[in-house]
Amino acid sequence: MGKMKSRMDESILVCVYYGPNGERLIKRGYKIAAIMDCPLYILTVDAAPLDEFNADKSDYIDRWKELAEELDVEAFIIRDDEKRPTAKVIKEVAHQYGITQIIIGQTAQSRWEEITKGSFMNVLLREISFVDFHVVSVERAIKSEVEGSFEKGVRAYLTSDGDGYRINFTLSKHVQYEGIFFKEIGTDFNNGIFKFMQNNKICQVQIEDDHVVEPNKIQCKTHD
């Protein structure tokens, strides 16, 4: 893949993970690389071996490979069976390929398994101080696709958890509320919306990392 570029002093790395934003990131990277006429690389990292990927992961990999061919990407890099922190893997790849700019999705910090939400960008900045970062807002990219932002709803339950509530998918005697959970597309954790009936009203609460956000502020609307 790839052809001789006029600017070899610049090179772009797009870091992708499973979800609808991956293809958008690749296309964003391609546009920037085309303007600069410099090499473009794509990287995905997974702790599991490639031969253990499920159907969904394999489909994403196949699509990204096709896109890499279509866009004449320099290299599509898969680091599977990787047990090191993802930031260190990205750093290694950046060094290996002489990367000067890295593109990553805004919510990637909740996808790379070993990085807690809100800290991934800081870890990258500490690990990789020799590149420029482009952080692409997922919300901006998909705000016009409201209906496609969540997976199909599944039966779920809320149980007490200290001062708040935790979402579960198994019915037990500790259940406080029963309803439907709509998981956000492109997240490894249970982030999304939980809807349930209360006093003949449809109520909903935001779920982040299995827990109800602001449990005392339930948004309800009159049931039709």
Quick structural gist:
This protein is α/β, with parallel strands linked by helices and 224 residues long. The chain has helices at 21-36, 55-70, 86-97, 120-127, 138-142; strands spanning 12-15, 40-45, 75-79, 101-105, 132-136, 154-161, 164-168, 175-183, 192-198, 201-208, 211-212, 219-222.
Write up what this structure looks like.
- It is built from five helices and twelve strands.
- The protein has 224 residues and is α/β, with parallel strands linked by helices.
- Strands 6, 7, 8, 9, 10, 11 and 12 form a seven-stranded antiparallel sheet that branches. A five-stranded parallel sheet has the order 3-2-1-4-5, with helices on both faces.
- Strand 4, helix 4 (120-127) and strand 5 form a beta-alpha-beta unit.
- The longest helix has 16 residues, at 21-36.
Number of separate strands: 12
Poorly predicted segments: 108-118, 139-147
Radius of gyration over C-alpha positions, nearest whole angstrom: 20 Å
Can you write the helix and strand succession as a string?
A: EHEHEHEHEHEEEEEEE
Helix content: 25-40%
Mean pLDDT: 81
Major β-sheet, in short? Answer: 7 strands, antiparallel
In one word, what is the shape? elongated
The SS-based structural class is alpha/beta
Annotation field: number of helices:
5
The percent range for strand residues is 25-35%
Distance between the termini: 56 Å
